[in-house]
Amino acid sequence: xxxxxxxxxxxxxxxxxxxxxxxxxxxxxxxxxxxxxxxxxxxxxxxxxxxxxxxxxxxxxxxxxxxxxxxxxxxxxxxxxxxxxxxxxxxxxxxxxxxxxxxxxxxxxxxxxxxxxxxxxxxxxxxxxxxxxxxxxxxxxxxxxxxxxxxxxxxxxxxxxxxxxxxxxxxxxxxxxxxxxxxxxxxxxxxxxxxxxxxxxxxxxxxxxxxxxxxxxxxxxxxxxxxxxxxxxxxxxxxxxxxxxxxxxxxxxxxxxxxxxxxxxxxxxxxxxxxxxxxxxxxxxxxxxxxxxxxxxxxxxxxxxxxxxxxxxxxxxxxxxxxxxxxxxxxxxxxxxxxxxxxxxxxxxxxxxxxxxxxxxxxxxxxxxxxxxxxxxxxxxxxxxxxxxxxxxxxxxxxxxxxxxxxxxxxxxxxxxxxxxxxxxxxxxxxxxxxxxxxxxxxxxxxxxxxxxxxxxxxxxxxxxxxxxxxxxxxxxxxxxxxxxxxxxxxxxxxxxxxxxxxxxxxxxxxxxxxxxxxxxxxxxxxxxxxxxxxxxxxxxxxxxxxxxxxxxxxxxxxxxxxxxxxxxxxxxxxxxxxxxxxxxxxxxxxxxxxxxxxxxxxxxxxxxxxxxxxxxxxxxxxxxxxxxxxxxxxxxxxxxxxxxxxxxxxxxxxxxxxxxxxxxxxxxxxxxxxxxxxxxxxxxxxxxxxxxxxxxxxxxxxxxxxxxxxxxxxxxxxxxxxxxxxxxxxxxxxxx
Amino acid sequence: xxxxxxxxxxxxxxxxxxxxxxxxxxxxxxxxxxxxxxxxxxxxxxxxxxxxxxxxxxxxxxxxxxxxxxxxxxxxxxxxxxxxxxxxxxxxxxxxxxxxxxxxxxxxxxxxxxxxxxxxxxxxxxxxxxxxxxxxxxxxxxxx
Lengths: 737, 144
Prior knowledge:
- The structure holds two protein chains of two kinds.
- By secondary structure, chain A is α+β, with helices and mostly antiparallel strands.
- Helices cover 38% and strands 27% of the residues of chain A.
- The longest helix of chain A has 28 residues, at 201-228.
- Chain A starts with a helix and ends with a helix.
- Chain B is mainly β.
- Chain B is 6% helix and 50% strand.
- Chain B is built from two helices and eleven strands; from the N terminus they run βββββαββββαββ.
- In chain B, the strands form two sheets. Chain B has a six-stranded mixed β-sheet, with no helix packed on it. A five-stranded mixed β-sheet of chain B has the order 3-6-7-5-4.
- In chain B, a hairpin with a 2-residue loop joins β6 (73-79) and β7.
- The A-B interface holds A 208-213, 216, 455, 503-505, 544, 546-553, 555-556, 559-561, 565-567, 569 and B 33, 35-41, 44, 47-49, 51-56, 81-82, 84, 139-140, 142-144.
């Protein structure tokens, strides 16, 4: 019923309003309790912070949903909370009363929004007066400030509808005891809440776990049925098999939601915030169908709104400033979502002014977050990190948009709770990129199951490049000792070989008599041959984190129950390689690009390659440029037949994959081969065509501390420009991004 | 020493009878396969599967510094941060011990064991060592 009327008044925002109502009710329920606890323990700053944030969120959301009355009320509440939080005012019973009263009024207003689609006409003077009265002197009580006679204000009955037989009490009182309408709203089940079922993530987790166990039991049953050769049992087991598989998929799907769902409100946020700040901003979204675990979605929902708001409010400059800086007057905020093995990556990119470290330092000093002496000791990155301190705000004025100090600290805390991270990359004058990374805790990982000493281990299938038989009887052993170190010749280069037994602290078994298998894997950017006893098969597994102290064993990223009920440990290949000192190598020679080579699918760089190494290439006669080694995946030589023109862009086939090709040579003829540097950027590959690879050098950048920033390096007394691959891609790609 | 009446699940570990408050015992699962974890601290036997969950298993004898035997039985206890398995030699029984029957841990008990013992009690003709449930919080000497 409520939905019907709302549809008429707010149209397609319907779903968002419903969600807002449901979520606000939930947080209000929690706040009741928090406030009561806070009264008992006025020193509990974390409780106060939580209440403040919740009210702040209601204010923000009601603001962009244009519930201006509710926004105004929550703003007043927030004011009071902000002053309690800063220690300006003490937590007293009168103030807690006022805040509890605010919760009741907010509930009543939500109820009204649900019924009529609007909060217009709600009489808020009493609650405002009540909140304002406790802003001052500690002696003033609510009773003293608001006389009971004036406290009861008539509220017009909400428009009645044919479907609605309910009657609302026409009055709301400001007295601390809830008015009849308020009471009714507490007791009555709201229609929105009744129409959607919210399932606790824990319930889904339990379901998932039980389904996993069911699968294992099913497998045992199926095996036994075959052993017994009982045809009825086999048929039953097969049916059970089908049902279980379907059940498993459904439960898994129940947890996944497209990330676009949390983005739904953002265009409105951008619009409203940019209007309020007098800016022109376009929002670009990429990867909205990326499926994300439900729990994670909840964790990033608020951070995303904060970050997008910040990007518009603080990041993008006003049109005049932009034009003066030689930029188009309209700024762009880009939201990008994607999966990188085991992780979801969400980027919020703006092409605004960037974040000034000097300004941050000054501001942090101003706000007393650091002392001048501390500031002197901080590195550039640490200065940037100050924006994550609680209470930090760069906004000069407190506005309804942002700048309350509810910001990046909350974002970071929220992400860390789900095991994620927040990174900020910024270039003064060019913009910022905030990257949220979080593990896909419930991601179903495709893995290769290998055994070592009879026990199963899982390797991420995306890391596996090749399988090689190591048969001691063979003519040429695939594993050779080079200067005492076992190596394997793989596609024209030598890759180090690690014995999994040695990784686990056993003795070296190379060279050895027993036939074994070599799994060539990409590990943190390096290619490594992993010697294992046997390869079992590939399996899709649900990775679970290791409990307690086992978590400190960083060579394992988790454990999983296999189809046969055994527990497999999931190897973190990057950590394994790092532990054994195998860093990302780069062969200096150009490798022939063999089309038979399956494309490496995805590589996560857990081990960052130092930022001060560069591949130096020539692009026009003797023009040299440098490419950050941290971006380089490999060097290759491609034939002209591998290069195609698609629209305005060039595409090169590398194995089975088509990769965007950016020609740095300005169209030098290809005969018959062209040298390319394959880079990986935000999970995407891009090939840069160069004339030749000259050298790999170690040199400090003259400015910028992140990959792709325009900078120079100095080698042999030559100044070489560092290619901004990021910018090249955004310029050249457009549709390819 | 004033203690309430407690019901204990008792086990045999390294030749000693140890008792664990029945309230923290989740399940006595007996003989289950335990998956060895390479590189793990010695006191950790490995991982076991309990209705789809993966639970770490602690070698109780090793943790207490008692003679380490085969310890084929597993008891699952509820630790603050989740379920933890304890490897024991034998499952004994369930006993009710009146509060007055509890005694202090003798100071002669080896320090490593004393850390995890909260009391002793005479049960039948044996001395029962009362395990502090915190033993499960402190897996292999590592806080988690």
